[in-house]
Design goal:
With about 140 residues, the chain is of the alpha+beta class. The protein has four helices and five strands.
């Protein structure tokens, strides 16, 4: 069994997103809302630009925990609050940074707290992953 301590960082990673990433995700998810690929539509509804899909951001953010565990089946629960959008520049894209830290230990696992940022701002709040630990 893994030896863990509350406050221990178990994984960190950065993930680049491009407009191509958004197109691929739209095709896979069926979410073709034009705010995810058309600058004019995004601006017309008051957004700062084309946004990454919230579920793409959420799915990307849990990836370092899955890689650390080595088995996605060990993820028991995963919840977030969407606090800010990830604006994907047409040329520069965007980079999501994730830090995963042990927030609490339980009898059969742990709660991993994620800090997920884009630029200097947190984009997911109260991002918590409940995991079973490999034996």
């Amino acid at each position: 069994m893994m030896e863990l301590e509350v406050g221990q960082v178990v994984a960190e990673a950065s993930y680049p997103l491009t407009r191509d990433s958004l197109v691929r995700y739209a095709g896979a998810s069926g979410d073709f809302n034009p705010i995810h690929y058309r600058d004019d539509v995004a601006r017309n509804v008051g957004l700062p630009g084309v946004l990454a899909h919230g579920m793409l951001t959420m799915g990307t953010a849990v990836q370092p925990v899955v890689e650390w565990l080595g088995d996605p089946g060990l993820v028991r629960d995963y919840q977030v609050r969407f606090t800010r959008p990830v604006v994907v520049d047409p040329e520069l894209g965007a980079v999501i940074n994730v830090s995963a830290k042990v927030g609490a230990l339980t009898d059969d696992g742990a709660r991993i707290d994620l800090t997920v940022t884009f630029g200097e701002q947190t984009v997911l709040g109260k991002a918590q992953v409940l995991v079973a630990l490999p034996k």
